[in-house]
Write a structure and sequence with these properties.
HTH cro/C1-type domain-containing protein; about 375 residues; about 35% helix; two-stranded antiparallel ribbon
């Protein structure tokens, strides 16, 4: 039976008792959502945003920690923010502040893990603000409507439509809390008699309009995916050097040179970009290579700008008749669906084709405005 909450209890004592009630209801129902609804039936004064937290048996500080875990610790939310959201949800005029739509998306992931932190219950962000929807910012109301409409009309084969219709949490130990999408195959340009199929994954962005930060774990996973593609291209790929475009590309080139290409020489291409042109910085490094060398060129992302074409022309000027392979961590798509059916659905497809690479390797697809490497490597 639920524990009685005394009117004379302190707010902290009341919170602890309500969290115990919520957890008891979860044990009875096996569902965070059902436990939250049951708690609100017993205590109508509790807003749904708060009830879901109690259904997980979490304090505000613990809820903030769970939130940060759900973002792969790319945020540093505190219990005061959870308190501000719940204060706003209790309809105190002028008190607290509403959560943004993107914050609601993270909260449903955090609370969907349940009291034990291991569940994966599908909760709608609309459930968290059921009684306070009209007090959200207009743009967040619109986002919530579109999200709900997308979920209700989702394809039957994809029950978890989520942020980008494909988002899920990767459960392997090496990628705990990193949000990635599903694997899919894509046919890309490759060498004669080589395997053109690449196994990619998507990088759904739960905060549209903002760069998607990559953790070191996800960055390493992308490099492992590139190595897997290189090994399975159908022919042995040997290169005389790995070149990295800017610092993020240099890190990629260093890993690939060490793990896949027997610690071959490493080149560094530092690009100075302005609105109208790209220039190679004198700090760039061009190692001595044999005639007509084979080169692996590494870049963190490919969007609209023809950086890759400019760099390729520069390499061929310095190393005539060079054969150039291209490895990129993230390739931007033209449409919202990241699981593209054709290489030409990538914004940089024309750029990569024009560069006439020996073969192309792509770890993942991404949406605008793009992705950010760890420690903001450039």
């Amino acid at each position: 039976m639920p524990t009685h909450v005394g009117a004379g209890d302190s707010p902290q004592a009341q919170g602890r008792k309500l969290a115990r009630i919520g957890r008891d209801l979860w044990q009875q129902t096996g569902s965070v959502k059902k436990a939250a609804l049951g708690l609100m039936d017993l205590h109508p004064e509790i807003p749904s945003l708060q009830a879901f937290r109690y259904a997980c048996g979490l304090s505000q500080v613990q809820a903030a920690e769970r939130y940060n875990e759900a973002t792969g610790h790319q945020t540093s939310l505190g219990g005061t923010t959870i308190n501000a959201w719940e204060t706003w949800a209790r309809e105190r005029r002028g008190a607290g502040s509403p959560p943004t739509f993107s914050s609601l998306l993270i909260l449903v992931t955090a609370y969907g893990r349940g009291p034990l932190g291991v569940a994966n219950e599908d909760i709608s962000p609309g459930d968290l603000v059921a009684e306070a929807y009209e007090r959200l910012a207009p743009e967040d109301q619109l986002s919530l409507k579109q999200f709900t409409a997308a979920n209700s009309s989702g394809r039957p084969s994809e029950p978890h439509t989520g942020v980008d219709a494909l988002a899920r949490t990767w459960k392997s130990p090496a990628l705990q809390d990193n949000i990635i999408g599903r694997d899919f195959n894509l046919t890309v340009p490759t060498m004669e008699h080589g395997n053109p199929e690449r196994s990619l994954y998507t990088l759904p962005n739960h905060r549209p309009g903002l760069l998607l930060n990559q953790t070191w774990s996800s960055f390493g996973y992308g490099i492992e995916r590139l190595i897997q593609q290189i090994k399975n291209v159908g022919r042995r790929v040997d290169v005389d050097a790995c070149f990295g475009i800017n610092e993020a590309g240099l890190v990629m080139a260093t890993f690939l040179a060490s793990a896949q290409f027997g610690r071959c020489p490493i080149g560094y291409l530092k690009c100075n970009k302005s609105r109208d042109f790209i220039a190679i910085d004198p700090a760039s490094i061009f190692p001595n290579l044999p005639e007509a060398p084979s080169i692996m060129l590494c870049d963190f992302e490919v969007k609209h700008a023809d950086v890759v074409g400019f760099i390729t022309r520069e390499i061929r000027t310095r190393y005539p008749s060079a054969e150039i392979y291209f490895a990129v961590f993230g390739a931007m798509t033209k449409e919202r669906d990241l699981e593209v059916e054709s290489f030409d659905n990538l914004t940089g497809a024309g750029i990569m084709r024009a560069a006439d690479f020996k073969a192309v390797f792509i770890a993942a697809t991404m949406s605008p405005p793009g992705i950010e490497p760890p420690l903001e490597l450039r």
